[in-house]
Automatic annotation (TrEMBL):
Keywords: ATP-binding, Nodulation, Nucleotide-binding, Transport. It holds the Pfam family ABC_tran. This is Sodium transport system ATP-binding protein. Belongs to the ABC transporter superfamily. It comes from the Bacteria. The keyword Protease does not apply. It comes from Planctomicrobium piriforme. GO terms for molecular function: ATP binding; ATP hydrolysis activity.
Amino acid sequence: MIHVDALAKEFSDMKRGPVYALDHVSFDVRPGEIFGLLGPNGAGKTTCLRILSTVLKPTHGRALVAGYDVVRHPEQVRAHIGFMSNNTGIYDRMTGWEMVEYYGRLYGIPEEQLQSRLTEIFQTLQMNDFRDVLGSKMSTGMKQKVSIARTIVHDPPVLIFDEPTSGLDVLVARAVLETIASLKAKGKCIIFSTHIMREVEKLCDRVAIIHRGRILAMGTVEELTRAHGQPDIEEVFFKLIRDLETELAEI
Ligand SMILES: Nc1ncnc2c1ncn2[C@@H]1O[C@H](COP(=O)(O)OP(=O)(O)OP(=O)(O)O)[C@@H](O)[C@H]1O
């Protein structure tokens, strides 16, 4: 469902010169799988997810999403994905219902299907008690739910979440993770970025540890801890980052 082959992105930064945000990464994600990109700030996670969602173009390599090339067929890719960035961007003067309805129309869902789809989503995500609250009056948790609702309104087969629990309190974060798990149970192909080890352990079928734009290791949590002789994913993560930094310092 997602096929990424030697994907790279170079930015030219006024101060720093060329920045290799993504350095030839390759991976695949299957339907019914949750794939995590685990990395520190600036690792390249957002850049990778932005390329997959057609917001950015790669400087090298190829990515296919739902069978469509992100550069050659961006409209097709957009029709088959739901992308939730960590900036919820909720409109102050619209209610949750209106916002999700608006996105449903943007995706071209026929009117007669749209209302039943909204009813279903508002029930599943337990949003009925605030369906008529304006964006300006919503709590962070409410906003995050609206954001998820509009990401999934067109029932896309591929879901891309950029740090979906960032800045949320524990209860809301838990609800978001439960929603992601239920989307996997429906057979969705899910990729999400995080720097929270526990989320990876709880949710991901496979994970790629990413730092300085490179994938340092990839596999199930069990495979990675075994291969690197560490007790848990946190130790694997710090070991790999330390090793790369030592290697770079010696060059
Ligand atoms: N538009 C841009 N112009 C120049 N450099 C950029 C641009 N976007 C990202 N970068 C740089 O690319 C690198 C990777 O950034 P990216 O946002 O992908 O990391 P990240 O893993 O998502 O981290 P974070 O969790 O901080 O968002 C960083 O060094 C960042 O400063």
